[in-house]
Amino acid sequence: MSIFTIGAILVGLSALFGYLNHRYLHLPHTIGLVVIALAASLSIIGFDLVVPSVHIGQKVTGVLRQIDFNKTLMHGMLSFLLFAGALHADISAFKARRLTIGVMACLGTLISTFVVGGLMWLSFGLFGFDIPFIWALVFGALISPTDPVAVLSLFKTVDVPDTLQAKMAGESLFNDGVGVVVFTVVVAIALAGGGQGGSMGVVDIVKLFFTEAVGGAALGLAAGYIGYRAMYGINEPSLEVLITLALVMVTYALALALHMSGPIAMVVAGLFIGNRGVKYAMSEKTRDYVLTFWTLMDEILNSVLFLLIGLEVLVVAVNIEHLWVALLAIPVTLVARALSVTISIAVLSRWKTFTKGAVPVLIWGGLRGGIAVALSLSLPDNEYKTAILSITYGVVLFSIIVQGLTVKPLVKRMVG
């Protein structure tokens, strides 16, 4: 099946399911897509159980398996989504809260990674799964970062106070990049410990982290400046839209080739263009062109991504023996999120004050999404991958559907 045909199917289903949600369910757009796609997937599974001779599930799964979810998201869609999200962010609000965002993105992610890893390692043992601690830590690393795509889509339907929204948006944009770097480091250690990657010392770990994180930020800043200078001397809206598109694609491709953090590069470049570029390098007409283009790009790709999350249940073989561990992983990740938020805020409270009700909103509003699924799919094939993938998918579905649908009344109650 051609890429065009697969794209036509995904966009067509996104439009159809979006229409059904808007007409009948009235759920937030992205959550509605996940719910309807998940219901369709479960219906296909049920139909196959009742009429196994038709093999409809096998046919649909065959189409989905042609879509590498990890590469589609991590090596494609994510670059556009992160740039679009950062493009619309107010850098002055981030600067004013840079200490809070930095501590929560770095310290919070590390705390959550180790808490989830430790508790899940104990949980695996309780259910008779013999999994090394380092692989439990891999799960902690991929599930700990809040997903910027899910969090930013949440703000389109929930009225969060500006100060709290800046903290949540900033944390999700930056801890995504930090989380991917931590995941890369932990997987490298796991593979080295398993004899698949040679030995890995402290110097190697620091070098890898530095190259990914600092290198990604430097690349994003350089790319943003080049794009800004290119647009500064011209006034041609269509060409300037093309420049931003080229900036995203070329920079992300360079980040992948140079083993730097593409997500961090996209956030930095997006913030640079969205603030300095929009203010100084664009006419009013160009500004409308650029912002409208990236808003539409964000909406379309978000729709396709959340549709894929709902359909992935047909690909992610959820083994029944992993069900109880997956259910236990939900409160574990929430406990870890609560600890990471409360410890970070306790550290920051000596210098900063926080909005009333900030802690519960930060905890419950820290959604997990497609990035966690993509990272789990990127794991090398081994005896632990199936369990990690199944548990990740369960946590992500709970986060998007249950947390996503209940955070609005929580915000109204806590900060309203």
Mind sketching the topology for me?
Layout lengths: L2 H23 L3 H22 L5 H10 L3 H19 L3 H6 L1 H29 L6 H11 L4 H7 L7 H32 L8 H31 L4 H21 L4 H19 L3 H28 L11 H26 L9 H7 L5 H8 L7 H31 L1
Helix pairs in contact: 1-2, 1-13, 2-13, 4-11, 4-12, 4-13, 4-16, 6-7, 6-9, 6-14, 7-9, 7-17, 8-9, 9-10, 9-12, 10-11, 10-12, 11-12, 11-13, 14-15, 14-17, 15-17, 16-17
What does this structure look like?
By secondary structure, this protein is mostly helical. The mean pLDDT is 89. It folds into two domains: 3-65, no CATH class; 69-415, Na+/H+ antiporter like fold. The protein has 17 helices and no strands.
Oligomer: single chain
Principal-axis shape? globular
Kindly state the percentage of residues in helix. over 70%
CATH class of the largest domain: Mainly Alpha
By CATH, the architecture of the largest domain is named: Up-down Bundle
Low-confidence parts, pLDDT < 50 over ≥5 residues?
A: none
β-sheet strand percentage: under 5%
Query: What are the secondary-structure elements, in order, as H or E?
Result: HHHHHHHHHHHHHHHHH
Report the major sheet. Answer: none
Number of helical elements:
17
Question: Which structural traits does this protein have?
Answer:
Na+/H+ antiporter like fold; globular; 416 residues; 2 domains; mainly alpha; 17 helices
Write a brief structural summary.
The protein has 416 residues and is mainly alpha-helical. It contains 17 helices and no strands. The protein has two domains: 3-65, no CATH class; 69-415, Na+/H+ antiporter like fold (Up-down Bundle).
